[in-house]
C-alpha cells in the first residue's frame, strides 16, 4: 500500500468506526485506531465546547455533544487551525434547533466574540480623528462618505434578547425561556483593546450599520432614513448613529468619493 | 540556513492559567515553550501575551500541524504563517513531530503514526527539506507516542529518525515519555531507541505524564512517572547538558507544582553531570 493510500485508509478509520479493517491490519491495529478515533472526537467536540460554552450550557451537554458530533461527521475539519473549528457550526445549529432560534443566536454571539478575540490589531478612529478627517468635507463628500469598520466587528439580527441570556448563563442561571427583546434588535460584536465586547442595538441601526459595512455610502443611509422618518428627524438620526459608532470605537477610517472599482 | 544556538536550561510550556506569572517575568525558568499554532493569529491578546513573555524569556516554538509525513506534501500557507510568527519572536528554535496530521481532504488535528518505510522516509525528508528551506532554519523533529504500528514497517523508529537527521540536517527533540510509551506499546526496548538515535543531534528534551493501561496513552495530564525519570537520567548521560522541559496540557496544576517537578529534572541533570565529571 502506498503512503498516500495508507493515509487515506487510516483517516477513513479515524472518521468512521464502521469501516472494515483491511485484511492485513490485525486486531491490535484496530485497538490503536480506536484510540486515535476517540481522541479525534473528544478533541474536536471539546474544541467546539470551548468556543461555545454558553451554548453548551443552554442546550445541555448531551444535546450539545450530539450537535457537535453531527457537525463533525458531515463536515470533518480541513484547515490546520483548531481555532476555526467552529466555522459553520452556527448554521448547523440553525438546522438542528430550527424551532429555537435563540440557540443559533447565542452560538453566533459566542463565535463572533471568539473571532473578535484574535482579529487584527488596529486603533479605532475617535471623535477628534473623525472631525479632523472630515474637516474639509463638502456636501458631496458627506453624501459619498464611506466608513471602514474595525476588523473585529460582526453584526447580526437576533430574535431573542441575547444580552440577557448571555448574562444569565454567565451566572450559570439559565432562564426557563430565552427572553424576547422589547423591539427587534441587532447584536454587534467588536473588540475594545484586547477585550471582545457586544451590544444590542435597535434593528434600524443594525440594518444601517450592516449596510455601511457592506459598502453603502452615508448618503444612501440618509436616503433610506428619509423614507422612514421626517426629513429633520432623518438627518438627526443619521448623525446620532454615526456618533454612536464612533463613540463605541467600531470605526477605523473614513473616505469620500465614489468607491474605487476592482 | 541558520543553525541552532547552543542553549541548555530548564523550561515550561506557556499555558493560559500561567500567563500573568510569565508576563511578570518572575517564574524561575530558563526558557518558555509555546504551541506555535496558538499564536498564529492576526492579533489580540494571544500575541500581546506572547510579546510580553518574549521580552522576559527565550522562547522555543513547538508546532503540531506541520504534518511532515503527509504524502500530499507541505502546506505553504501554514509555513508562511509559521515563518511570520518566527520573525516576530525570534525563537531559540522551532520543532514539530515525526507524524502526519492530514490528507488532502481532512485534518485530524492529531499526531498520526507513520509507517517506517523507505517511501515514508523519502516523503518526510522531502517535506522537511522544503519546510527548512521555507523557514530558513533547521528544525527539531520530535519522536511521537504511537498506539499502532504497521505491518508495512521496514525499519525501527530510531533508524528512521537517524536517517531523517542524516539526510536533512535536522535536529531532534527527544520526548523521553514518548519513547517510554511507544516502547511499552510496541514491545521494543527504550534503551535500543536511545542507543539508536544520533544523541549529538538532540537539542531539547520533553518530559510528561501518560495514562497507564493495556495501551499507554500520552495524555500530558499528570506528573512524570518514576520509569520516565530513570529513562531521562539515561538520556542526559548520553546527550550531556540539554534544554529540558515539562509538558503539561491538561489538568494543569498551579505553577509551584510544575516548578517542583522541574526541580526534579534539575537534580537528575546535576547528579548525572557530577557522575560524568
What can you tell me about this protein's structure?
The complex is a heterodimer of chains A (about 260) and B (about 280). Chain A has about 260 residues and is mainly α. Chain A has twelve helices and five strands. Chain A folds into two domains: about 100 residues, no CATH class; about 140 residues, no CATH class. Helices cover about 55% and strands about 10% of the residues of chain A. A three-stranded antiparallel beta sheet of chain A has the order 2-3-4, with helices on both faces. In chain A, strands 1-5 form a two-stranded antiparallel ribbon. The N and C termini of chain A lie far apart (about 50 Å). By secondary structure, chain B is of the alpha/beta class. In chain B, the strands form two sheets. Chain B has an eight-stranded parallel beta barrel with strand order 1-2-3-4-7-8-9-10. In chain B, strands 5-6 form a two-stranded antiparallel ribbon.
